[in-house]
């Protein structure tokens, strides 16, 4: 009996609590229209999402004649809540845009700044996925599992690449408060091992609160043939438009989407998250924009002169304090312009022009999206946040640049003489280029260092402008307060009048770690003290801590352009620097030797933050993290069998042949003169293909466009059934080693060859694993053109993998 009474009592208490909660929610709601009518609307409390439905307010009799219907009201945001256009470009440091002193014309960003405010101390994390995770959650990147890019995820809470259900995104919050939510462009926040038709899709945009997604998966994309999706379906618009470029394609799609929203639900506010892949490599603008920039001769004086020009512009515009010092050129790391050969200067100018064209082209297309909002008459109630870059300018192109950035990402330099062969094709679909490090350093003026370097502002300082007509009166104003990506979500929540939820989809939420910047909108607060007094930074072991005008930072042991291929010191042994950035905006005067006690205080403060936000354990490895096992559907498997035409499988969910022995065996039935693709992974810029041409079996190994190795049978296969196989013995251990490949037909060897090198760690970022067909680009244009469908029958294709020999 006591147990029964206790259970009943608990149930009553729970019921009372639920009723009280409902009463609180109901009291906070603002209902418009006649309750129960089809046109009635309501706001929601927002602290507990989804909002529980109201009780049925109609009447139910024996028949509809003596009954009264009642409709649940449509959920809407608080009255006056603005539309939101959140824009962020890629790999662009503080000195890139004309808005912040750069020489590259960015008139759209200029206009947003003229219609609102420029922020001169706004910060990223120094790397793609981490910044983006912080931006959409309002929490530090390690707090949401994004301590590195997701391809490098490891099994620690701060680095597992998963935005947990207790870290709801701004998309999900706004969606459940009545916004139409959409995401255009780069998605580098889905774990690569979840690029699968099998799902789950909770870590895709549509699973994170964005009702519509048009964009590419991963850290970068070929703009002509991207790994492109609409929601969760792969699409290939270039099949209808051979001149397709994603920078224009996503603007077209965004404009079309906004027009449809306006036509069908004109009163419903929108939240558009617009994140183009530019100016991340590969730099692929249109020829029109390359010609425009070339005619301006912006870079003829070289990178040293460029820094001086940008710095002078910054002083003139007032986007650096008057007493700012230009940090010195890193003589021990990079050559001065006048030390270069004539060919080097010619090539490097071309690289910079293509990069600049990419930046300007992207800004122009962003302008089209903003113009569409204006044409709908909605600009007056639209909050525009335009962030130039998710980190500093990238140095991942090596000191000499590269026509094939996937080679550079794996630490493979290409001599200038070889690069000159691609001079006229630079930036076209025939290349996937990146520029020399000297330009990256210059585009981060006035600071030191570049992308990946979280310890210095060259890696973390971003130009940002915010406009909101009628709510920001100090048009063209400058705001110097110290802020971070995590401060955008609370800013959006404050201006919309929507609270951060305590419960979201049944899960208690971690607190938002950002601080609203809305106080800076008031002209009276133009020079108010920053409400953010502490912020840590960490990427690949480079780390820093800001507190109350001071910043302590580790000295990077190597340039990030080496991509971790050089031996690194123990991550705990790094040298530290100390700066009073309240007086030293550019981190020019290191005070560590003069103020050891202050440095020690700051170091201890970093450790407190690191433990609080999941930064530990510190790790300065780069490629090893790419190669570390991930929990994909192929994890632990060493044998794969396929039996039908199939295309579009992401490399992360396909057999990984790198740094190991492997055997591919195909049981096929072919007609006379059989042709077509049997199996391939990758394409023009790296990968393999196993196929028939005029009946002859061929295996091609494309070493990142640097070399192609080809095995070919001497005679054509007779019509009928055959077993053809390619067996590869790897010369491990280690990455990028060579090996010996042998091609057989019906058990008889027909070709063998030893190759000196293989792809080290990344076969492709935007191509796929295909059987019976080849999509996007082919591994050997001399042999075939896509789609190269197999004209026989694939009875079975198997892939057998040996143990990894990466170490």
What would the keywords be for this entry?
807 residues; Alkaline Phosphatase, subunit A; 2 domains; alpha+beta
Summarize the structure.
The protein is α+β, with helices and mostly antiparallel strands. Helix content is 22%, strand content 22%.
Tell me about this structure.
With 807 residues, this protein is an alpha+beta fold. The protein folds into two domains: 83-613, Alkaline Phosphatase, subunit A, CATH 3.40.720; 634-801, Jelly Rolls (Sandwich), CATH 2.60.120.200. The protein has 15 helices and 33 strands. The strands form six sheets. Strands 5, 6, 7, 8, 9, 10, 11, 12, 13, 14 and 15 form an eleven-stranded mixed sheet that branches. The protein has a six-stranded antiparallel sheet with strand order 22-33-24-29-30-31, with no helix packed on it. Strand 1 (31-32) and strand 2 form a beta hairpin. Helix 6 (287-294) packs across helix 8.
- Using the CA coordinates, give the radius of gyration: 28 Å
Structural class: alpha+beta
Distance N to C terminus: 66 Å
CATH class of the largest domain: Alpha Beta
CATH H-tier superfamily of the largest domain: Alkaline Phosphatase, subunit A
CATH architecture descriptor name of the largest domain: 3-Layer(aba) Sandwich
The general outline is globular
InterPro entries: Alkaline_phosphatase_core_sf, ConA-like_dom_sf, Sulfatase, Sulfatase_CS, Sulfatase_N
Family: Belongs to the sulfatase family.
Keywords: Calcium, Hydrolase, Metal-binding, Signal
GO molecular function: arylsulfatase activity
């Amino acid at each position: 009996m006591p147990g029964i009474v206790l259970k009943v009592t608990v149930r009553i208490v729970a019921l009372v609590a639920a009723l009280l909660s409902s009463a609180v929610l109901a009291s906070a709601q603002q209902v418009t229209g006649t309750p129960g009518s089809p046109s009635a609307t309501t706001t929601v409390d927002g602290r507990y999402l989804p909002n529980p439905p109201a009780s049925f307010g109609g009447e139910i009799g024996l028949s509809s004649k003596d009954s009264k219907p009642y409709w649940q009201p449509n959920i809407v945001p608080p009255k006056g809540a603005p539309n939101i256009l959140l824009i962020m470009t890629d790999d662009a440091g503080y000195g890139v845009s004309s808005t912040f002193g750069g020489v590259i014309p960015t008139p759209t960003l200029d206009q947003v700044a003229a219609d609102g405010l420029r922020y001169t101390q706004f910060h990223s994390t120094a790397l793609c996925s981490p910044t983006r995770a912080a931006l959409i959650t309002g929490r530090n990147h390690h707090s949401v599992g994004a301590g590195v890019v997701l391809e490098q995820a490891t099994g620690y809470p701060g680095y597992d690449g998963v935005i947990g259900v207790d870290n709801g995104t701004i998309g999900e919050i706004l969606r459940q408060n009545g916004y139409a939510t959409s995401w255009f462009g780069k998605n580098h926040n889905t774990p690569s091992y979840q690029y699968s038709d099998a799902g789950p899709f909770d870590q895709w945009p549509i699973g994170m609160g964005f009702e519509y997604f048009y964009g590419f998966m991963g850290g970068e994309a070929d703009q002509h043939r991207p790994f492109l999706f609409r929601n969760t379906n792969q699409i290939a618009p270039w099949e209808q438009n051979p001149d397709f470029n994603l920078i224009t394609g996503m603007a077209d799609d965004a404009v079309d989407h906004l027009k449809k929203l306006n036509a069908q639900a004109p009163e419903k506010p929108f939240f558009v998250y617009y994140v183009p892949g530019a100016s991340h490599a590969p730099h692929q603008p249109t020829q029109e924009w390359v010609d425009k920039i070339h005619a301006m001769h912006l870079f003829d004086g070289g990178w040293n002169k460029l820094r001086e020009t940008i710095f002078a512009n910054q002083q003139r515009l007032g986007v650096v304090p008057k007493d700012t010092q230009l940090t010195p050129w890193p003589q021990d790391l990079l050559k001065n312009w006048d030390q270069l050969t004539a060919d080097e200067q010619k090539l490097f100018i071309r690289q910079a022009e293509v990069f600049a064209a990419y930046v300007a082209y992207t800004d122009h297309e962003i302008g089209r999206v903003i113009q569409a909002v204006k044409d709908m008459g909605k600009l007056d109630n639209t909050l525009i946040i335009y962030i130039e870059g998710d980190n500093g300018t990238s140095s991942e192109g090596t000191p000499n640049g590269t026509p094939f950035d996937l080679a550079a990402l794996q630490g493979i330099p290409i001599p200038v003489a070889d690069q000159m062969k691609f001079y006229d094709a630079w930036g076209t679909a025939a290349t996937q280029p990146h520029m020399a490090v000297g330009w990256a350093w210059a585009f981060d003026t006035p600071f030191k260092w570049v992308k990946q370097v979280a310890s210095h502002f060259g890696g973390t300082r971003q130009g940002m402008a915010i406009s909101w007509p009628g709510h920001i009166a100090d048009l063209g104003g400058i705001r110097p307060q110290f802020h971070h990506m995590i401060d955008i979500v609370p800013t959006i929540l404050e201006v919309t009048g929507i609270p951060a939820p305590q419960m979201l989809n049944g899960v208690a939420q971690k607190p938002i770690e950002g601080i609203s910047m809305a106080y800076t909108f008031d002209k009276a607060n133009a020079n108010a003290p920053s409400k953010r007094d502490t912020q840590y930074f960490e990427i690949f072991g480079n780390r820093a801590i800001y507190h109350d005008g001071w910043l302590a930072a580790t000295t990077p042991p190597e340039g990030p352009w080496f991509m971790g291929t050089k031996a690194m010191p123990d991550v705990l042994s790094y040298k530290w620097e100390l700066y009073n950035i309240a007086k030293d905006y550019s981190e020019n005067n290191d005070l560590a030797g003069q103020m050891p006690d202050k440095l020690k205080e700051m170091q201890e403060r970093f450790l407190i933050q690191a433990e609080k936000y999941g930064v530990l354990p510190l790790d300065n490895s780069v490629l090893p993290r790419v190669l570390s096992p991930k929990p994909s559907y192929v994890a632990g498997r060493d044998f794969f069998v396929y039996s039908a035409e199939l295309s579009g499988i992401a490399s992360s969910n396909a057999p990984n042949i790198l740094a190991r022995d492997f055997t591919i065996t195909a049981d096929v039935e072919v007609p006379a003169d059989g042709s077509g693709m049997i199996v391939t992974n990758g394409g023009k810029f790296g990968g393999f293909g196993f196929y028939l041409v005029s009946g002859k079996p061929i295996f091609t190994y494309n070493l990142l466009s640097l070399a192609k190795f080809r095995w070919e049978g001497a005679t054509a296969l007779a019509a009928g059934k055959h077993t053809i196989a390619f067996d590869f013995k790897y010369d491990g251990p280690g990455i990028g080693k060579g090996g010996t490949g042998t091609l057989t037909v019906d058990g008889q060897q027909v070709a063998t060859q030893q190759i000196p090198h293989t792809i080290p760690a990344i076969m492709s970022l935007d191509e796929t694993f295909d059987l019976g067909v080849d999509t996007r680009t082919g591994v050997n244009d001399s042999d075939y053109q896509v789609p190269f469908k197999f004209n026989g029958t694939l009875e079975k294709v198997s892939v057998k993998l040996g143990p990894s020999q990466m170490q």
